[in-house]
């Protein structure tokens, strides 16, 4: 499920362009990662795994998302994960993340989640 969430987030956040700036230049890359997100992921990992420049690297950005979701997303639904990404560790409870959730669900309508049988392949 996390890999599907990451794909949807990439499409919504940047359309897949690793050079996309957002949030006044604070958020960068395919997943629009902010410096505070890099710092948080490094804290979760227990040592500095990623630099701010890694936000431009697609695979490094995906790995940051995996670490983040593994830490904060235990037992969460796809919808909650979208909101966590948008609003931080308690983003799934913040009203301000509902618009981002709507965008992700709209993207899902064009790219439906895999069925259980498809994920077993």
Structure description:
With 121 residues, this protein is mainly alpha-helical. It has a single domain, classed as Lysozyme, CATH 1.10.530.10. The protein is 55% helix and 3% strand. The chain has 6 helices and 2 strands, in the order H-E-E-H-H-H-H-H. Strands 1-2 form a two-stranded antiparallel ribbon. Helix 4 crosses helix 5. 29% of the residues are buried.
Measured by DSSP, the beta-strand proportion falls in: under 5%
Could you tell me the mean pLDDT? 92
Strand order of the largest sheet: 1-2
Q: Choose one word for the global shape.
A: globular
Structural class by helix and strand composition:
mainly alpha
Task: Please state the second-level CATH architecture.
Answer: Orthogonal Bundle
CATH topology: Lysozyme
Give the SSE order as H and E letters.
HEEHHHHH
- Helix count? 6
Major β-sheet annotation: 2 strands, antiparallel
Number of strands: 2
Helicity range of the residues? 40-55%
Which stretches of 5+ consecutive residues score pLDDT under 50?
none
Broad CATH class: Mainly Alpha
N-end to C-end Cα span? 14 Å
Radius of gyration: 14 Å
Write a compact overview of the structure shown:
With 121 residues, the protein is mainly alpha-helical.
Features:
single chain, 121 residues, mainly alpha, Lysozyme, 6 helices, 55% helix
Topology:
Blueprint: H1 2-13, E1 21-22, E2 27-28, H2 35-45, H3 58-72, H4 78-87, H5 98-110, H6 116-120
Antiparallel strand pairs: 1-2
Helix pairs in contact: 1-5, 2-3, 4-5
């Amino acid at each position: 499920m996390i890999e599907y969430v990451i794909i949807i987030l990439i499409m919504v956040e940047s359309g897949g362009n690793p050079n996309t700036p957002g949030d006044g230049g604070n958020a960068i890359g395919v997943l629009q990662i902010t410096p505070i997100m890099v710092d948080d992921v490094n804290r979760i990992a227990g040592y500095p795994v990623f630099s701010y420049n890694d936000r431009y690297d697609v695979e490094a950005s995906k790995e940051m998302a995996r670490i983040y979701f593994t830490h904060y997303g235990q037992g969460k639904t796809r919808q909650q994960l979208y909101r966590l990404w948008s609003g931080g560790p308690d983003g799934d409870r913040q009203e301000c993340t509902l618009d981002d959730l709507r965008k992700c669900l709209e993207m899902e309508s064009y790219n439906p989640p895999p069925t259980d049988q498809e994920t077993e392949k």
